[in-house]
Amino acid sequence: MNPEPEIYFHVGLGKVASTWLQKKVFPKLKGLQYFGPHRYRKVKSLLPKAGSGKVLVSREFDRQLEEELRDFGQHYPRFRVVVIFRRHDEWIASQYRRYVKNGWLGTFSDFYDLESDQGFWKRKELDYRMKIETIERISGQKPVVLIYDDLKNDPRAFVAALADSLGVKPPARLFTGKVHASYSEKQLKVLQAFCRRFIGRVPQGKSNKLLHWLTYKPYWAVNHLVLYGASFWPVSWMSSDPLIPEGQLEAVRTHFAEDWKYIQTISQPID
């Protein structure tokens, strides 16, 4: 019988620097084998060949978290999850901006409706304690919990704490720049107005890579041209209404205050 590896599974929630970790940190950790998102679909055939050492698997999930954990657990019933959380109001705001960048036409209330739970994202998606309970139930172990603000405030200390929790050595050198460019509120407002007037429904992605490229990539290119041009758009030509009303974010922050305190109590300490 082949020896089993010690498996860590980074379930990267979107908009918490998952891409930066996958490209600039995980491949440089010393003392483990790393299987990134491009090899995730093949990982079930790769892990049996990994030996008895430490293995880190990484993939981004948001609403698919439980489904993907269950699928992974069918093949490897015991593994330890690594997960990073961001304060609820900041996280849902960043997710909404990401959707707007990709052509979302609706308002923030259409996207996340805290009061009546009729939004595209449901209230439960921000229930972090429930996510922790799901992770523990499926993986059989307590997860390594880290906080996004710690990464922003001190990337080197964050990576050192991450490496310590995995029992490996951090990279000798650390790239601390951004992997993806972020867009201003003005750019996103101009893009959303453009899409509402000229584009309408966003083309659906295709499982076939060629069909996906043919249907979605031209739309993606137009979006980015508009985002670039929006940098030069006069502010006086725009509505003064914010992309996300502050009162709605304040309501999210208040509603999940106790949930956030819970995450802070179980997170990995940062020296």
The whole-angstrom Rg is 20 Å
Number of distinct helices: 12
Residue share in β-strands: 5-15%
CATH fold group of the domain at 6-89 and 126-178 and 257-266: Rossmann fold
Per CATH, the architecture of the domain at 6-89 and 126-178 and 257-266 is 3-Layer(aba) Sandwich
CATH superfamily of the domain at 6-89 and 126-178 and 257-266: P-loop containing nucleotide triphosphate hydrolases
Largest sheet: 5 strands, parallel
C-alpha geometry: globular
Helix-strand makeup class: alpha/beta
Number of strand segments: 5
Could you spell the SSE succession in H and E letters? EHEHEHEHHHEHHHHHH
User: What helical percentage do the residues reach?
Assistant: 40-55%
Low-confidence stretches: none
CATH classification class of the domain at 6-89 and 126-178 and 257-266: Alpha Beta
Terminal CA distance reads 41 Å
Order of strands, main sheet, comes to: 2-3-1-4-5
| Mean pLDDT figure | 91
Task: Tell me the layout of helices and strands.
Layout: E1 6-12, H1 18-25, E2 33-35, H2 43-46, E3 54-60, H3 65-75, E4 80-85, H4 88-101, H5 108-111, H6 128-139, E5 144-147, H7 148-153, H8 155-166, H9 185-199, H10 209-230, H11 246-255, H12 257-266
Parallel strand pairs: 1-3, 1-4, 2-3, 4-5
Helix pairs in contact: 3-6, 4-11, 9-10
Protein name: Sulfotransferase family protein
Structure at a glance:
InterPro entries: P-loop_NTPase. With 271 residues, the chain is an alpha/beta fold.
Overall description:
- This is Sulfotransferase family protein.
- It comes from Marinoscillum furvescens DSM 4134.
- InterPro entries: P-loop_NTPase.
- The protein has 271 residues and is α/β, with parallel strands linked by helices.
- It is 47% helix and 10% strand.
- It has 12 helices and 5 strands.
- Helix 3 packs parallel to helix 6, helix 4 packs across helix 11 (246-255) and helix 9 (185-199) crosses helix 10.
- The longest helix is centred in the C-terminal third of the chain and has 22 residues, at 209-230.
